[in-house]
Design brief:
Elements (H helix, E strand, L loop, with lengths): L14 E4 L11 H4 L3 H5 L5 H7 L3 H17 L11 H10 L9 E6 L7 H7 L3 E6 L3 H14 L4 E5 L11 E7 L4 H9 L2 E10 L4 H7 L1 H7 L1 E9 L8 E8 L16
Parallel strand pairs: 2-3, 2-5, 3-4, 5-6
Antiparallel strand pairs: 1-4, 6-8, 7-8
Helix pairs in contact: 4-6, 4-7, 5-6, 8-10
Length: 262
């Protein structure tokens, strides 16, 4: 399923790149790093990973190697995160797949190192994923991941979410550790289709941020906000997600300044 509804070949920073042959590859390749010294020095995936990823576990393992290799070297994850990349990051994001219908289109805004966008593209091959990331260093890493993992259902769009308003219209919008809910709602409302769903991974801050964003959500026409727990029995701690539905009649009628909304 090819990602659709994103700009291609646009001058400037807004660029989208998919898993095309001949793309940039990291030195040595994920396949080469997944064995030998890597397998001896790093623990394998936890049992829950096989249950979640099934026959796509090898792609998840290769992605873990990219995070702990180039991702760590380029400062996309911290030094302390390498040893807990599975539990704290990959599985924490993977269980969100429970909330994503398939097939659908999904935009991951502020994708960073690919959490949760790359993880969901691996776990849900029927979902068309657009990884939205404005920073060059991060978007290059995402492009390398898409190519090395052979993720034909994913493209990287180097742009700010607000630049894609009216250009990208996704069934589901995801975000993790991007911005407070008041600001995130504004960005997400611009790229989610009417009737679509916003999924924000927020952890323990979910309740407070949702209360602070109440007025902003109302002005944007975003409905049915709730906190959903996913991953019970598979990840510890469980993943807390703020789930919001975009109004059927559009969400862009009232301009919102998140700095003045409560």
């Amino acid at each position: 399923m090819e990602p659709q509804g994103v700009p291609r070949g646009v001058d400037g920073a807004m660029q989208c790149v998919g898993a095309k042959s001949g793309g940039v590859r990291t030195g040595g390749g994920a396949d080469e790093r997944s064995g030998g010294e890597e397998s001896e020095s790093q623990p394998g995936p936890p049992p829950a990973a096989r249950e979640i990823f099934g026959d796509r576990l090898s792609k998840a393992e290769r992605y873990a190697a990219l995070l702990k290799g180039p991702g760590l070297e380029r400062g996309l994850i911290g030094p302390r995160e390498a040893s807990r990349v599975w539990e704290r990051h990959i599985l924490n994001c993977a269980v969100v797949a429970e909330l994503v219908p398939s097939p659908c289109t999904l935009a991951d805004i502020g994708s960073g190192a690919g959490l949760p966008g790359i993880v969901l593209a691996i776990a849900l091959p029927g979902v068309s994923v657009t990884l939205v990331e404005p920073l060059l260093r991060r978007s290059v890493f995402l492009e390398e991941c898409v190519v090395e993992l052979g993720l034909k259902n994913a493209v990287v769009c180097r742009a700010r979410a607000e630049e894609l308003k009216g250009v990208l219209s996704a069934d589901v919008v995801t975000a993790r550790a991007v911005a407070p809910m008041r600001q995130l709602a504004v960005w997400a409302a611009g790229v989610v289709r009417p009737g679509g769903t916003i999924l924000a991974l927020k952890g323990d801050r979910a309740g407070g941020e949702l209360r602070e964003a109440k007025a902003t959500l109302r002005k944007l026409g975003l409905q049915s906000p709730e906190i959903v727990t996913v991953g019970s029995g598979r990840v510890e701690p469980e993943t807390l997600v703020v789930r919001i539905v975009a109004g059927q009649h559009g969400t862009r009628a009232v301009p919102v300044d998140p700095s003045r909304s409560g």
